[in-house]
Fold:
Amino acid sequence: MNISLKSNKRLFVFACLTVLLVIVSSFRLHEIKISTSEVTITNTTAKIHIKLFADDLASCLSQFTKKHVPFEGTTVDAKTLVSLNQYIKRNFALSVNNIPLTYEISNSVIDNNQDEQLKTIELIYV
Structure:
């Protein structure tokens, strides 16, 4: 009876470790990376350049739209651009002296790096 209890404990520990290993290995990890933003202000215009990592942005947009959003090629397609603008406008507000500003996207570029983890997207808002 004592032998059976030990083997059951071992089996239980082995099963727990296996489940933990499967869970941890299913996460897609990548190095810490920093997105950048640059704001240029003239008398009447503010131009905002935002550079984001494509895999992170695709993940957020896929959750937002509840469907897979890929970033392939070197430009953002029209349908994805609509979703991207909805996401940005819903989650980011711009104001000067507490006066809300309207803004529109003027350009978007996807770099042609084939490594999905290093691919970036530059968004330009005016």
User: Anything to note?
Assistant: Helices lie at 2-26, 54-65, 78-91. The radius of gyration is 23 Å. DSSP finds three helices and six strands in the chain.
